[in-house]
UniProtKB/TrEMBL annotation:
<dbReference type="InterPro" id="IPR003737">
    <property type="entry name" value="GlcNAc_PI_deacetylase-related"/>
</dbReference>
<protein>
    <submittedName>
        <fullName>PIG-L family deacetylase</fullName>
    </submittedName>
</protein>
<dbReference type="GO" id="GO:0016811">
    <property type="term" value="F:hydrolase activity, acting on carbon-nitrogen (but not peptide) bonds, in linear amides"/>
</dbReference>
<keyword id="KW-0862">Zinc</keyword>
<dbReference type="InterPro" id="IPR024078">
    <property type="entry name" value="LmbE-like_dom_sf"/>
</dbReference>
<dbReference type="Pfam" id="PF02585">
    <property type="entry name" value="PIG-L"/>
</dbReference>
<dbReference type="GO" id="GO:0016137">
    <property type="term" value="P:glycoside metabolic process"/>
</dbReference>
Length: 227
């Protein structure tokens, strides 16, 4: 794997200490953050995941108890990614943006531990999902209060534009100051994605996004010092 500027910066993140990914739904850690989390774990960082909802409102999957199915899928995927621990909360799927922000901040603080860095979707939630935006906003507020680093994950503007034109989605591209590309290995991420069988089956948006992104992810790193 090439030592791009993004790869070097992720290695620096791994060297700073434990990492906590803050996501809205089971599968966000794999479909979105998977390659980045796997890379951080492979570089020696202790990686944990906080998932704020059980994903029970998904329109994909026909399980009688989708929340339980997705809990098991999340556990299996996290194990493959090298995640040390997963905390799964039961805030309302599809209604996370309506939860008191102070409650979401408290949830992040409660599991923060020794984390030096939070890993999140970019500020617009990547897909425009209000739950994604709420999870990211909570992480940024806690990071600012606690003096932590943040890694934003997103897609390149060209990828977002293609998805929106082809599939009628509302992806937001991650661009501007500090945005860098990272060369990633999709193998472990693909295996983790496959664990989310209820959500990965018949998911053309996911498949097309991965095809358009190839072996490159887009991130922006905010350091506690602003550098």
């Amino acid at each position: 794997m090439d030592d791009t500027a993004g790869n070097l910066r992720l290695r620096e993140v791994a060297s700073r200490g434990p990492v906590l990914a803050v996501v809205a739904h089971p599968d966000d850690e794999s479909f979105g953050l998977g390659a980045v989390l796997a890379m951080l774990a492979s570089e020696g960082a202790e990686v944990r995941v906080l998932c704020l909802t059980r994903g029970e409102a998904s329109t994909l999957g026909s399980a009688v108890d989708l929340a339980q199915v997705r809990r098991e899928e999340l556990a299996a995927a996290a194990d493959l990614l090298g995640v040390r621990d997963v905390v799964l909360l039961d805030h309302p799927d599809g209604g996370l943006h309506e939860v008191d922000p102070a409650m979401l901040d408290a949830a992040v603080l409660d599991v923060l531990g020794a984390a030096a860095t939070l890993v999140v979707f970019e500020g617009n939630g990547v897909t425009g999902h209000p739950d994604h935006r709420a999870a990211t906003a909570a992480a940024f507020r806690v990071a600012a209060d606690q003096g932590l680093n943040v890694v934003e994950w997103g897609v390149a503007p060209a990828v977002a534009d293609s998805l929106n034109a082809e599939l009628g989605t509302e992806f937001a591209g991650l661009d501007g100051e500090g945005a860098v590309d990272v060369d990633v290995d999709r193998k472990v991420q693909s295996e983790a994605i496959a664990c989310h069988e209820s959500q990965a089956t018949d998911n053309p948006v996911l498949l097309r996004r991965l095809a358009l992104s190839g072996s490159v992810d887009r991130i922006r790193i905010h350091t506690a010092t602003g550098v």
